[in-house]
């Protein structure tokens, strides 16, 4: 009986983990459908952050954010935090920003798990204009 309880506990915990946005995600370009990078999403001080851990098919060996301004100007893209300060609000995470290293611009951000817990809806927006990508969980 004790073994059954332990097994149920671990199954329950794995289900919770599968429903979390915390983890590693492959970014998919919404225009080309191609994978661009790998982002690790994590929690720090009760907020959600994400940093690029790998750039896929990069034209250069160590790409930098030449279009960025401020603290990220000409900094390496690998290791850069691109998602900052999101909070959970029911089924979505919002209230923070996302940086697009391709153009150096920051946008308000909203993240939401799709019905498939291995697909993450990533939306960057300014006022009523938004752009949505669907990232795939890296297993």
UniProtKB/TrEMBL annotation:
UniProt cross-references to InterPro entries, sorted A to Z: DUF2147
Protein name from the UniProt record: DUF2147 domain-containing protein
Keyword field: Signal
Residues of the signal peptide: 1-18
Domain named DUF2147: residues: 23-137
Source organism per UniProt: Winogradskyella maritima
